[in-house]
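Example record used in the benchmark description.
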Amino acid sequence: MFSTYFSNINIGKRLFILIATMTSILALSGILMIFGLGSASITTEKLNSDIERSVYLSKIYNKMNQDFIEPINNLSRGTLTWIDTNKLINDNIASFDKQWLVFLNTLSESERDKTIAHYQSNLSDFRLAIDEILRLGKSQNSAKLSLFMLNDFDLLVTPLGTTLQQSIEKQREISETSYTDFKTFQLIFIILSIAFVTFGIVTSVLLGISIRHSITNPVTKIAETVKSIANGDYDARTDLKGSDELSTLSSALDNLLDDKVKTLVETEKENDILNNSIIRLLEATSQLSDKDLTVTVPVSEDITGPVADAMNLVSFETAKVLGEIHHIAENVEKNASNVKVQGDKVTLVAEEERSMVQTTIDRLENASKTMNAIAKLCMNCNEMAENASESTDEAFDAVTSTASGMDEIRETISETEKRIKRLGERSQEISGIVDLINNIAERTHILALNASMHAAAAGEAGRGFAVVADEVQRLAESSRNATSQIAALVSNIQNETSETMETMNQTISQVVEGSDRAEQAGHRMRETQKKTSDLATAVAKIAERSINQAKINERLKSEAHSIQEKTQETDTELQQQSNDTLRLVALSNSLLKSVNTFTLPSSVLSVNDDKKAS
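Model output (structure tokens):
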């Protein structure tokens, strides 16, 4: 079917169809690959977006548990104070809101509205629970806290956690579905690509074989016909149909043979009459049989004259046709040689492209290894930065606790100082009372002496009174001794109180100085904590981007391998085309050798030279 179709097209157009078909197949293969890469890129971006949303939801869920629920539970169990809990909650509210806004910004406008509506009620309950905890923190009422934790806290907080877990699970299912669809699309795309490439190869091979047969079969048929005629089989005909150069040549040859046979029949009828003319004709034809088409048959005035003229015409037409065949064969050889040169250039370019692709693959592998190493180092740095941040947080908490303790110690010492001052004042009062008691004892002693003297003057009547006076005198002596001891003790107390006051004043100064240093250390710890956190964030971003770049390098490496395989297939097809072109050149040379066995007239050769020049 293709041979019949190509017989109506000239040889140059056939070769153009072959080259255009192969070029179109290569272009469509490239377009198909670009489409597949674009689709894969879009699917990867969507999958990355879904995973990013899932990660944000997980961070929000973990932040809710770690920053709010866990401190509140620790407060309920008594392992955390009200002050620390209120401070943690107040510090984490802004961070939680910021994390929630970051998650909303990853959504489209319609998805953002749906998400806000979906979480509105749960977020309101969660905020209500946090506000209630902060309100209880102001009064520090543990009984109300226990009652709130038992009755209302889980009812207000748990729905938000459940909704977040459901959203995370739903996002995970969406990511898995997207990944499954991508793998299915990738498998279908690979199958279609293989089918298209196979179709292109088969089409090119069939088209090349058909074009080759459309050229070689007519040439072979003409050569066989000419050979049969040379062997004396004048009934041999090419019987080729079509409108190309070879069909035109075969039609001319068939017409020439028909005329020749007709002439031979007429010549046989007049053989006896025209014996002498036939002998001359035989002599001329013997020269023609030697493939010398430059011979001119002598034309006589008898009936052999038209035969001779016809022989001359046949000789001239045959020479003309053979000249055209020679010209066509030379053009075919030239065009085939050009096609081979172009094919060699294309093969060389394909080889260079394959070498460049291999170099690109090697560089991508090195880049991928480097990016993976950078990502690992960044992850280690991130872990170290996080550990440093945690240590800084603990140190900051310790410094804060130390500062608070120093303040409490300062207040305690201040209160102690006031009490010691009051003790000194009381000791002064005791000294006054002791002096008063001492005066009373002196006067009592004097009164007792006077009473003893009066009792002695009274004789026996005052003996009993003298005993009482002696007892009073001893009591006054004991009181005076006691007041002396008390006065000594009070003096010692006053001295020690004065020394204690001086020591406590020094201690207060040291406590104030230590509190200032602790506050300065707290400020520096806070700055260190912020810088460490910024460093951890930056290192995490570098690690994430390094991992993404490594994945992109892996995909580029895979795509480069595919391009290398396609280039290898193209090189194989070009080599096949080069072999076919070599066979075409060999056939053209064979045709030229067959035509060159004839000696053509100079007029025909000059016409061919003019065609070459034009």
